[in-house]
Amino acid sequence: MDADLILRSFEIVAERRPDPAPLVYGRLFARFPDMRPLFVRDDDGSVKGEMLSRAFEAILDFIGRRHFAHTLIQCEVVTHEGYGVPPEVFGTFFGAIKDAFAEILGPDWTPLMAEAWSELLAELDLYVTHPDQMAPRKVA
Length: 140
Ligand code: HEM
Fold this sequence. Notes:
Layout (H helix, E strand, L loop, with lengths): L2 H14 L4 H11 L14 H17 L6 H15 L4 H18 L5 H19 L11
The structure holds protoporphyrin IX containing FE.
């Protein structure tokens, strides 16, 4: 997975769309409409915003040193089951981030970037679907 390309996509999103949350959650709720009411407490969008920024931090750690991302993702899968979020929704959430980024980047979204993100999603999925696996190899 080419971490530099993923990083570059984050940089462009930060420049162009400081709040990508509506694009991400719009996609997530289109795919899983029954997830929307779980955010009933979130009347001002701050829970969704906080959650997305934690997910971004986890991805940025996951593509780099992996200090905490793998454990965090495995823990969140378990905690979120308590909120009524089935594990398979995580893959859609990460996919929604990828698709939102592609939309924001427009012509700057390259095939190599898409490939790097697909590889990232596949790796993240391993941690979601096998929460009992051992600590991963470190990248870089
Ligand atoms: C790596 C992925 C994820 C991370 C790091 C994460 C993190 C978090 C965090 C930190 C909160 C608490 C935010 C706050 O109260 O300010 C939260 C709440 C929540 N998350 Fe996630 N989340 C992830 C994935 C998901 C997915 C895929 C869903 C599916 C819809 C989801 C649904 C929720 C809901 C419904 C709440 C609100 C619970 C409440 O009202 O107390 N999360 N998440």
